Amino acid sequence: MNLHQPLARLHHWRASRPKTFYALATVLGLATVGFVAVVGLLLAVSYSGFGHMPSRQELLDYRNDIGSEAYDVNGQSLGRFFKQDREETTYEELPEHLVQALVATEDSRFYTHGGVDWEAYGRVFYKTILQGNDDQGGGSTLSQQLIKNAYGRPALGYGYRFDMLLHKLREAILARRLEDVMPKEEVMERYLNTVSFPGNTFGITAASRRYFQVEPADLTVRQAASLVASLKGTSSYDPRRAPERNAKRTDLVLTLMGRAGYLSAEQVAAAQAAPLCMVYYREPPRAVEAPYFTQKVRQQTAELLAELTHPNGRPYNLYTDNLRIYTTLDLRYQAHAERAVTRQMKILQRDFERHLGRRDPWETQASLAGAIRSSDRWRQGRQAGIDSLALVDSFNVKRAMQLPVPHGEPLVGQYSALDSVAHSLRYLRAGFLVLDHTDGSVRAWVGGSDFGFSRYDHVTSRRQTGSTFKAFVYAAALAQGYDPCYRISNSLQTYADEDGPWTPHNSDWVHGGTYSMHGALTHSSNVAAVKMIMEETPEPVVALSRELGITGEIRPIPSIALGTVESTLFEMVGAYATFPSGGTYTEPYFISRIENADGEVIYTHQSEAERVLSEAQAATMVTMLRRVVERGTASRLRWEYGVLSPTIGKTGTTQNMADGWYVGSTPGLTGGAWVGGENTGVRYRSGQMGNGARSALPIWAYFLQNVEADTALVLGPQEDFPEPPEEVQQSLRCADFIPPVQQVELLEEPEEREVRVVPVLSTEL
Question: What predicted TM-score, i.e. pTM, was given to this entire model?
Answer without folding.
Answer: 0.80
